[in-house]
Amino acid sequence: MALPKWQQKLPGNKTVTTKAALASINNGCRVFLGTGCGEPQHLIHAMVADRGTQDIMIYQMLSHTLAQYVDDPAFVERFSLKLFFISEPMRKAAFEGKIDYLPTYLSQIPKLFQSHRIGLDVALIQVSPPDQFGYCSLGVSVDITRSAVENAELVIAQVNPCMPRAWGDSLVHTDAIDYFVPYEEPLVTYHPNLPENDITRRIGHFISQLVRDGDTLQVGFGTLPNAILQHLGQKKDLGLHTQLITDAMLPLFEQNVITNRLKTLLPRRVVASLCMGTEKLYRFIDDNPFFDFRSSEFVSDPLVIARNDNLVSISSALEVDLTGQVCSDSLGYHFYSGIGDQVDFLRGASMSKGGFSIIALPSTAQNGKISRIVSHLSEGAGVATTRGDVNFVVTEYGYAELQGKGIYQRVMELAQIAHPKFRAQLIDAAKKHHYIFADQLPPLERDLIFLEKYNWRVNLKSGQTAFIRPLYPSDEFEYRNFFYSLKEETIYRRFFYKMRLFSHEIVQQQWAEVDYHENMSLVGRVQKGGHNEVMAIGSYAQEKDGYAEVAFVVHDDFHGQGIASRMLEYLEQIARENNFVGFVATVFDDNQAMLNVFQKRYPQAELTSNLSGEINISMPFAPSPEVE
After folding, report:
1. Nearest C-alpha neighbor of 110 from the set 150, 77, 82, 74
2. Where in the chain is the domain with CATH 3.40.630.30?
3. What is the overall mean pLDDT for the chain?
4. Distance CA 202, CA 208 (A)
5. Fewest CB atoms within 10 A around its CB: which of 116, 189, 433, 473?
6. Residues ≥6 apart with Cβ < 8 Å to 550
7. Domain 454-620's class?
8. Helical packing angle, 592-601 and 563-577, nearest 10°
9. CA 271, CA 244: separation in Å to the nearest integer?
């Protein structure tokens, strides 16, 4: 039987049997194994089966095949496992102390090989058959495998026709490989259980509000970040610069949602480091120039990441404390996953023009028994991401924006997105730690998801865009800053006296009255720099006979932009839903602008003047159109 052409071109001593290749692994060797779905299963099984092989130190990032052996005491005696990331099949072994976890940033691992701080005697890898020019492809596992090939004393490659040929920096010439072992077998496949339930739908909803058309995404390891992707199907021209490609991304490729057209670094190409999925995905990336596979020191380098404008990093966590510290690699003293590239991408996103990061997690664990927003991290939990690196935190109850905010605001925002039944105790713990005021009111202990329908986008006459949403307790500092930015006359027209202080105590009194039904407040916000600032507030408060008193205050810079008219429209919509029949208001008789707003919407309004120069306005709602 004739040998394949690629074997005919190699020197006769390079293509060898499995036994001959593995004979080079001596007792005490330090052996690298290819990552995840790119690991050379045949070579691994053969190495373990050779009982003469003893005292071997194995380095690997994502391990799959070895999970079949770690419960065998004889295997643990012969092999020492050092993993940079604990994959799901290896967690039990990690909890039992059978694995030595190396907490290292993914972008830094290749440098550990290059500097020989981690010396490698042998690298066992898997490649596609070489092409006519002698180049094999590392296929679905470029990541840290390329550096291992470049720095190991001996490289043994399983040549597998099932390995896709990936574009990018995945090519390895036959001269760089010492032994070739031809062996065809299906690649390891990865079938994550992508939960689709109310929690993931709500988290996906909030993330879809944050992600903009044209953003470049990074999607972290884990089932939740991948499950969220299905909620981005309405976005346009997204880009992808990420470590891992999975099947969850296939619909976004096929529906032309991810086009990479607007990327500023390597446009029109997905930049990634490895691929873990099904055979369908492997065939999709095979020889597909849409994908550009690079090594981890490139893909996960924060300085490289930052070259992508509008880079949005989406990753997950096990728990987040009230100051913003994130634990993602351990459950107490049990190592659960790894540092990976979360910090690399959070810092890269923060340096990206228009970029930001998102940490997503369900609000509870253990079937709702414990909160994942916590007053302090669990004993033994590691701080994978510091409080200085976190931007947005998202649960099924909304999102908290932490960047540039003090501990007080962080506590309020994070308590607001915790599960309702844990909010009061989180606030109590924060008071005990002196994070917040002793008289601070906790967020309401009920699910406020219904408030999400009260979010509007308004184009102002100036060309700016205003975002209108309900006012939350976590808005206290923005609310106070807004008040102090107003002219004295504006304040007087709103409060009917020269109010000079807007203290925490005054704000607390207002929060105590807001229940989002009988009493409602909306804020209008506009973008300034990298964040949104309050520029208008509209409220109604329950009066008698089914009426509510309505009032507005608009920043002086936004008078005449139409914001009060739109907020009045939205407040009426909410009031109707809560069974109010009309509004009442009191304005000064010379406040013609506000009178015009009311009379334009309610031409049948009744106006009554009093001796104090004020006008009382009664504005019954028009009958709702009958549904035929």
Report:
1. 150
2. 454-620
3. 89
4. 10
5. 116
6. 538, 539, 540, 568, 571, 583, 584, 585, 619
7. alpha beta
8. 50
9. 9
What's CA 121's distance to the chain center, in Å? 38
Q: Is the pLDDT of residue 493 over 60?
A: no
Helix axes 504-513, 476-484, angle to 10 degrees: 120
**Bridge partners (DSSP) listed for residue 162:** none
Please write the tens of the pLDDT for every residue from 444-481: 777 777 778 888 988 888 888 889 999 887 777 787 77
- Coil, strand or helix: which one is 342? helix
Chain-centre distance of CA 205, in angstroms? 12
The span from the CA of 36 to the CA of 63, in Å, is 6
Structure tokens at 109: 């691992």
Residue 299: which residues within 8 A CB-CB, separation 6 or more? Answer: 107, 143, 241, 242, 243, 271, 272, 273, 341
Query: Which residues of the chain does CATH 3.40.1080.20 include?
Result: 198-432
The CATH number given to 5-182 is: 3.40.1080.10
Domain with CATH 3.40.1080.10 in the chain: 5-182
CA 37 to chain centre: 24
Is 146:293 a contact under the CB 8 Å cutoff? no
Q: What is the token pair recorded at 542?
A: 């329950």
Is 371 in contact with 419 (CB distance < 8 Å)? yes
Confidence of residue 506 (pLDDT cuts 50, 70, 90): low
Of the candidate ranges 120-134, 175-189, 387-401, 517-531, the one whose mean pLDDT is the lowest: 517-531
Sequence-ordered alpha helix ranges (H) in 361-419: 407-417
Q: Rounded to 5, what percent of the chain is helix, strand, coil?
A: 30, 25, 45
Q: What pLDDT, on the 0 to 100 scale, is given for residue 498?
A: 43
Superfamily for the 198-432 domain:
Acetyl-CoA hydrolase/transferase C-terminal domain (3.40.1080.20)
The C-alpha atoms of residue 102 and residue 84 are separated, in whole angstroms, by 5
Q: Are 140 and 275 in contact (CB under 8 A)?
A: yes
Query: What CA–CA distance (Å, rounded) separates 66 from 92?
Result: 12
Task: Give the confidence band of 496 by pLDDT, cuts at 50, 70, 90.
Answer: very low
Which tens digits make up the pLDDT trace of 193-206? Answer: 766 788 999 999 88
Give me the residue label for tokens 């106006």: 607
pLDDT over 60 at 389, yes or no: yes
Distances in Å between the Cα of 320 and the Cα atoms of 31, 192, 417, 584 are: 36, 24, 11, 44
* Cα–Cα distance measured from residue 123 to residue 143, given in angstroms and rounded to the nearest whole number: 14
CA–CA distance, 423 with 404 (Å, rounded to integer): 23
Sequential DSSP letters for 276-339: -S-HHHHHHHTT-TTEEE--HHHHT-HHHHTTSTTEEEEEE-SEEETT--EE-SEETTEE-S--
Task: Name the CA dihedral angle for 165, 167, 172, 173, rounded to a multiple of 10 degrees.
Answer: 90
Question: Look-up: residue for tokens 């002219």?
Answer: 487
The token pair at 14 is: 């390079």
